[in-house]
Design brief:
With 432 residues, the chain is of the alpha+beta class. The protein contains twelve helices and 18 strands.
Amino acid sequence: MHDIRAIRENPDAFDAALARRGDAPLSASLLEIDAARRAKIQAAEQAQAEQNKASKSVGAAKAAGDEAEFERLRALVAEKKAAVAQLNDEAKAEDAKLTDLLARIPNSPAPDVPDGADEDANIEVKKWGALPSFDFEAKEHFEIKSVAASMDFDTAAKISGARFVMLKGSVARIHRALAQFMLDTHVDQNALTEINTPIIVRDEAMYGTDKLPKFGDDSYQTTNGWWLVPTSEVPLTYSVAGDVLAQGDLPIRMTAHTLCFRSEAGSAGRDTSGMLRQHQFEKVEMVSITHPEESDAEQKRMLSCAEGLLEALGIPYRTVILCTGDMGFGARRTFDIEAWLPGQNAYREISSVSTTGDFQARRMNARFKPDDGGKPQFVHTLNGSGLAVGRCLIAVLENGQKSDGSISLPVVLAPYLGGRTTLNADGSLSKP
């Protein structure tokens, strides 16, 4: 949510930020509504003052026996009371209109975000790991012999439709091991607090984390109005909604492993093979609530946490900073981490780490009280995948594949797999 006062003070800067995202200028129309709202409020205050003044004189006119003046003043009080009510209603209508428009305007990009129209303008900032070399044609995850029988799309489609999968046996266990490895690493090494969150949330939580009103079609809503979370960013971030935190409580660093649900609106025909793009998936999320002066450093810390997981798993990756045209609605700056998938001969996104500045905090009124006793300020909120479990499974399977259809698994997963480090061609797990 944007601050209308900041738009009043510097409308050109606001429009310039919109232009960087490829959007038309909006300051003039916003300020027109704002001016109308403020005029209604001022007129209501003036009418209220006149009503109060007339009310005080009514009794004096009655006591003096001036019936004509008494009736005139009583009529004036009624007139001003009606005017105040009407003006307040009109002001509320203008305020609702302004709030709705502001809620649909994307966040302003940070100055260091590259300009560009789409992903082609993203800039690589890091590359890690040597790409695997195979003496055979690398297969996609669902084609590998040891995986194919345990990754059941047909049964899932019979139950739920397209873009669902049932994982079985060893592949299901590896998927579970990855999630456990991620959580343990975040808690034991990255000092994040594990949270077990609800995965059904109210409108207010979706709105406060900028998923509503603009992106309602991308999520699933229950018949009684609740929403299935598109990511645990929603409950984790909204957990501080309406709070005034002590500065000493910051930063708050959280992680959660949840099911996530997305309708994938607008993605028809994209990634229809395999389990890369699903309606239901699992993700380990990171969320930080920080002091504004620390949010840029916190984003780098979160990025390092996500990259460290891939390095521990031995998955080659590259990190890119997204350009203005590819960045998400609520983000001020986003880094994407893309894992190497040999079966596609391409890097594919496995994590996005974003700072929203105070964009979400304004929507949900999350603030902190400075140590110096000054006026409460809005916190900054950040979120990042650490990591998408299903996509990480894909990367592990494809990078570890062997010519006989077996898969060499990352050693760091051995404690979660009973010491086993190989997925055999027949789908069983074995120790070295």
